[in-house]
Design brief:
By secondary structure, the protein is of the alpha/beta class. It has one domain: 3-Layer(aba) Sandwich (Arginase, Chain A), CATH 3.40.800. The chain has an eight-stranded parallel sheet, with helices on both faces. Strands 2-3 form a two-stranded antiparallel sheet. Helix 2 packs parallel to helix 3. The chain binds manganese (II) ion (2 copies). One manganese (II) ion binds next to loops.
Amino acid sequence: MTEFFADAEASFNDARFIFYGYPFEGTACFRKGTAKAPDEIRRHSYNFETYLMELGIDLSDVALNDYGNLELTKDQGKNESLVTDLVTKIVNGGKFPIGLGGEHSLTPPAVKAVQAKYPNLVVVILDAHLDFRVEYENNPRSHATVTRRVSEIVGAGQVCSIGTRSVSRAEISEARGIGLKFIESGWTELREYLADLIDDLDGPVYLSLDMDAIDPAFAPGVGTPEPFGMTPYEVIQTINFFADRIVGFDCVEVCPPYDNGNTSALAARLTRHLVGAIWQTQQRFK
Ligand code: MN
Ligand code: MN
């Protein structure tokens, strides 16, 4: 790691929000390079003002810490333990974990730690893909199995995917059979669905942002781009709808070698908005 996420100047003990990097791309199936994303997102975070105009919040008033990157190997079992151990330490300290991927396989071990602290945890996943395969290329820890693993941890009724537009036939029929909630991108007024969703899902929320949920016009630098995606404003809307309940977050799947810089910048800016929105709505973080 060359530099911390912008404004993450507090110590671990003093901070309310803890960033950590997950520079892993071991199961990426199409374009490689997402292991470089945590440092690229950090680099682009310096582009922005500390003041968030849309919220009236200045991030220099918020205690942020950047733990750095996890020391990962090819052993995904060990990597998962590193994620779970760190996120457990963060949430048990009353702090908010922010994972910077790396590929989406970051999410299940993070959710496992957050769910241990909040047993009625709801997981909202923004993703072009349903990621509901039981395994992919014989690997149950693939980035294509994330929603499946998460639903095994918190229960399928506690999971909702948003931005869905790419599934296998087997995935969609199983997801429908199990009653997994998902909102297709593009065809709906998202706001109406979000309002229903909030009534449906009670409890604290872990939000996982797979950047390929966003249309490739806005976020071209991802591992597996899918047309017909969400706008950045819809992501902001989703964050704002759940802001008073979000207890953990990750931003994954940025792929710098295929980026013109704008995807890392968008990831950094959306993450900054999320911190500000949570700071504004959740008294416990003040
Ligand atoms: Mn994904
Ligand atoms: Mn995806």
